[in-house]
Amino acid sequence: MVKNYSVKQYQESDYENWNTFIGQAKNATFLFHRGFMEYHKNRFQDNSLIVLYKDKWIGVVPANKVGNEIFSHQGLTYGGLVYNEKSKLTTVIAAFRAVLLFLEANGITKLHLKTVPSIYHMKPAEEIQYALFLAEAQLVRRDSLSVIDLSQKYNFSKIRKRGIQKGIVNGLVIKEEADFESFWDKILILNLDERHSVKPVHSLEEIKLLKNLFPNNIRQFNVYHKDEIVAGTTVFESKTVAHCQYISKYESDENLGSLDFLYHFLITKVFANKRFFDFGISNESQGKKLNDGLSCWKESFGASTVVHDFYEVETANYAKLNSFFTKSKNILTK
Asked: What are the beta bridge partners of residue 290?
């Protein structure tokens, strides 16, 4: 069984087949489309992998290389081993063993793997977590996502309701726009620089490019007060999740209720039929610190916690999976 699995590196000629596979996977989103992965290809040495059973694609690993180590692509929020809904647990374990064996044979000593949070799964897809356990992978980071399950009852806190009412009284107007300049230049960049001395992960040019490539997945909502932009959010929309990639407002306009007004509209109107609304993480220092104020703000909309795990595994640990298949064979022949 195990000998029929093989791994090869992604090549440009695999572009269409890769995207077709991603479209059929049960734990993939548009972030794994090659068009999204390659907008920043000059920053990373791509080392994405394709797993085959005989000649059939059964899995892919979006990845990049740094020295003699491989990372679940550092330009993506999540990653790992991606597979389709027909993949059985033993198939995923065998595929993961093949990946580790291939990397070890090619001089790679360690694989850094970040999982895909469960809310992004089309169907339950935590087979890889079990494979990581068998391979004695080390959990090195755990982020906490603030998520509303829109299929369940949720409640806004009293303070959020007051903020929503403020937005109504102040005559705020919400617009979905294809234009990113106003939000980036007048709010987002200034706030991130003043509060954290950082820049947005995506430059204005990059987010405009991605919007052109994925017009239905990347959406910009801005809030206006007397025709002046006062707040906004950039949403990455996948099949199951509306994820807030960026959230920002004018700090001097705290009493307008702009974000409360905006998120009430998004949660109850625009994305009401999604399964999950994901505010993203409130963590710092590789998950070791929690921005309590930010986390509480998200929870006041009715969000609760979903974890996002990051692992490291020695590629030589493929050998730890050998005994699993020996036992499986014995069970099957009894």
From this structure: 283
3-state SS, residue 58: strand
pTM for the model stands at: 0.93
Q: At what angle do helices 89-105 and 127-134 cross, to 10 degrees?
A: 50
**And the tokens for 244?**
């807030």
Coil, helix or strand for 255? helix
Q: d(Cα 233, Cα 244) in Å, to the nearest integer? A: 7
Closest by Cα among 77, 79, 81 to 89 = 81
The CA R_g of the chain, rounded to the nearest whole Å, is 22
* Closest to 49 measured CA to CA, from 63, 37, 35: 63
**CA gap 334, 179 in Å, rounded:** 64
Contact of 176 with 265, CB cutoff 8 Å: no
Are residues 267 and 277 in contact, defined by beta-carbon separation less than 8 angstroms? Answer: yes
In the numeric block, the tokens 């949070």 are attached to 117
Residue 308: closest CA among 179, 129, 152, 155: 129
Half-sphere exposure of 186 (CA within 13 A, CB side): 17
Per this entry, what is the length of the chain? 334
pLDDT in single tens digits along all 334 residues of the chain = 578 999 999 999 999 999 999 999 999 999 999 999 999 888 999 999 999 999 999 999 999 999 999 999 999 999 999 999 999 999 999 999 999 999 999 999 999 999 999 999 999 999 999 999 999 999 999 999 999 999 999 999 999 999 999 999 999 999 999 999 999 999 999 988 887 788 999 999 999 999 999 999 999 999 999 999 999 999 999 999 999 999 999 867 568 999 999 999 999 999 999 999 999 999 988 889 999 999 999 999 999 999 999 999 999 999 999 988 776 554 443 3
Question: Closest Cα to residue 74, out of 65, 87, 82, 83?
Answer: 65
Sign of the CA dihedral running 31, 33, 35, 37: positive
Helix (H, G, I), strand (E, B) or coil at 222: strand
